[in-house]
From TrEMBL:
Sequence ranges assigned to domain Inositol 1,3,4-trisphosphate 5/6-kinase ATP-grasp in this UniProt record: 78-248
Keyword Nucleotide-binding found: yes
Originating organism: Salix suchowensis
All copies of domain Inositol-tetrakisphosphate 1-kinase N-terminal, residue ranges: 2-58
Cofactor: Mg(2+)
Family according to the record: Belongs to the ITPK1 family.
Protein's name in the database: Inositol-tetrakisphosphate 1-kinase
Length: 261
C-alpha cells in the first residue's frame, strides 16, 4: 500500500469498525468515531500517500442542504415553489431513518414531521431517475425507476403527508425497460460534462454520484435532487475498468509530479 502511494478512501456508514485494509479506509461516523481526525493523522504519518477526496469535502455531502448549495450556485434555473413537497431529513448519516422521504400535499401537514428537514418541490419526472456516476474524469449514466408522477387531480383532492421508506435502494434498473422514449432519453452529454466538471471543482471531490430527473413533458428541464459520496459503484456498468483507469491515471500524474520536483 505504502509503496503504491495511493490511499483509497471509501465511506461505508453501515460497517461498524474502523478498518484500514490495503485499498480501503472505512470511515465511520455513526459510533462517534472522529474519522476526519483519523484520516488527517494517517496523512501526517504517511505523507507519500494520496488522499483521493478530503474528509471535510466529504462531510459537505452528508447534509442535504449543503450538498445542493453548489448546484444552486451554478444558477442554471429558477424555482417555482409549488405543492406537493418532498421532505427529507437534513442529515444523511447512513441510517434508514435518514433516507425516509415524505410527500406533503399541503403545507400545514408539514408540522407533523420531525425537523430538521429539507423541502424540495416534487417534480413529476415520468417515474425514471438518472444516476450519474463520477469517477475522476469519467462519467457514466444509468436509468432507475423512481416515484411515479403525481396527477393534478391528486394534488387537488389529497391532503396530508405520506411516508416512503428508502425509495432508491428498492428501485430497479430501468435501463432495459420499455419506456416512453421522451422519458428514457439520457440527459445530453454536454450538460453532464459541464455539471460533472463544475461539481468536481466546487465540491473538491472525485468520487460521487448525482441523482437527476427530467421534468415530465419537457425535453431539457433537469433537476439535481441528491448527491452522494462514494455511491454503490457495483451498479455502474464497467466499473472495474473505470476504476482501474482512474487509479492508474492518478499514479501516473503522481509520478510525473515527483519527476518534475
Ligand atoms: N424533488 C423530487 N421530486 C421528485 N421525486 C423526488 C424528489 N426528491 C426525491 N425524489 C424521489 O425520491 C427518491 C429518493 O430521493 P433522494 O435520492 O433524495 O434520497 P436518498 O434516500 O438520499 O437516496 P440515495 O439512496 O440516493 O442516497 C429519488 O430516487 C426519487 O425517486
Ligand atoms: Mg438518491
Amino acid at each position: 500500500m505504502k509503496n503504491k502511494g495511493i490511499l483509497f478512501v471509501a465511506i461505508d456508514l453501515n460497517r461498524p469498525l474502523l478498518d484500514q485494509g490495503p485499498f480501503d479506509v472505512v470511515l465511520h461516523k455513526l459510533l462517534g468515531k472522529d474519522w476526519c481526525g483519523t484520516i488527517e493523522d494517517y496523512r501526517k504519518e504517511n505523507p507519500e500517500v494520496a488522499i483521493l477526496d478530503p474528509p471535510d469535502a466529504i462531510e459537505h455531502l452528508l447534509n442535504r442542504q449543503s450538498m445542493l448549495n453548489d448546484v444552486t450556485d451554478l444558477n442554471l434555473s429558477d424555482c417555482h415553489g409549488k405543492l406537493p413537497l418532498v421532505a427529507k431529513p437534513l442529515v444523511v448519516d447512513g441510517t434508514a431513518k435518514s433516507h425516509e422521504l415524505f410527500l406533503a400535499y399541503d403545507q400545514f401537514s408539514l408540522s407533523e414531521l420531525e425537523p430538521p428537514l429539507v423541502l424540495q418541490e416534487f417534480v413529476n419526472h415520468g417515474g425514471v431517475l438518472f444516476k450519474i456516476y463520477i469517477v475522476g474524469e469519467a462519467i457514466k449514466v444509468v436509468r432507475r425507476f423512481s416515484l411515479p408522477n403525481v396527477t393534478k387531480q391528486e394534488v387537488s383532492k389529497v391532503e396530508g403527508v405520506f411516508r416512503f421508506p428508502r425509495v432508491s435502494s428498492a428501485a430497479a434498473s430501468a435501463d432495459d425497460a420499455d419506456l416512453d422514449p421522451s422519458v428514457a432519453e439520457l440527459p445530453p452529454p454536454p450538460l453532464l460534462e459541464k455539471l460533472a466538471r463544475e461539481l468536481r471543482h466546487r465540491l473538491g471531490l472525485r468520487l460521487f454520484n448525482v441523482d437527476m430527473i427530467r421534468e415530465h413533458g419537457t425535453k431539457d428541464v433537469f433537476y439535481v435532487i441528491d448527491i452522494n459520496y462514494f455511491p454503490g459503484y457495483g451498479k455502474m456498468p464497467d466499473y472495474e475498468h473505470v476504476f482501474t483507469d482512474f487509479l492508474l491515471s492518478l499514479m501516473r500524474s503522481k509520478d510525473k509530479n515527483r519527476a518534475a520536483q
